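hiii, so i know i said id send this last week but things got crazy w the move. better late than never?? heres the sequnce for the chain we talked about at the cafe, plus the structure i predicted for it. fair warning i was half asleep when i ran it
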Amino acid sequence: MRQAGSETRLSLALLIPSLIGVAVFVYGFIAWTGYISLTDWRGLLPDYALKGFGQYKQLFNHPRFRQDLVNTGVFTLMFLAGNLFLGLTLATLLDRRLRGAGFFRSLFMFPMAVSFVVTGTVWVWIFNPDSGLNRIFTALGFDTADWGWITDERMALVCVGLAAIWQMAGFTMAQYLAGLKGISDDLREAARIDGANEAQIFRHILLPQLWPVTVGAIVILGHISLKIFDLVYVMTQGGPGRATDMPGIYMFEITFRGDFFARGAAIAIVMLAMVALLIVPYLIYSRRMDAA
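okay and structure toks below
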């Protein structure tokens, strides 16, 4: 009995420093940011007087922030669709135990080893209108005079999305591949005995079994896309115009270049709310699935 109590006290003693750190440096700073967003702090001198939700009203009435939300929505849909499709396709091919599957698995996972900053730098070279892809297409006989890539407002967001998909497709592939490895071969063999072809097996057996993997991938990828900053900033800095501007870039500029700290805090809270709208339902869903 004494030994059990001693182990309990030891466990608490080990957990308390981490709990204090999380309480202060995570939830405490979130609460402080929320408080600052309700003030009118602008300039280097702090202003802690509460002003209500005026910052949020001004924020949602600002054309730039509304455009940022649209850009984030378009980027998120493109990012999710591209990663899920490409990741599932690659995982399905590798699951067939093709020759050289180990090499290709490592190759597809390689982009995850670099940061978004490195990815952005490389893809800026690729999408540079004066070099990169344009030189290849010109050598093939195409007229690339109007192919501006990241300098074209119509193409810039797509270019950023392609770079992001390249970086994270390997992660999605790994998730799906692990899910496919966990599906018993007996289910597939039973379906084949019943006369099902490979397309029917994939649609009616594999996809339903992979649904939890898909939900998890959507949550993780959606979290990344909703708070994206570094990749976009390296590639376009939000331009041309506001074609690739994101809330994270707006927050950075208005806070650390414009000294509008209350407005920047309000943007941060809105970004936190967007991520929470994605993650909280997933946590509730996971708890219900565990309890079932």
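btw The chain has one domain: 64-291. thought thatd interest u
miss u guys!!
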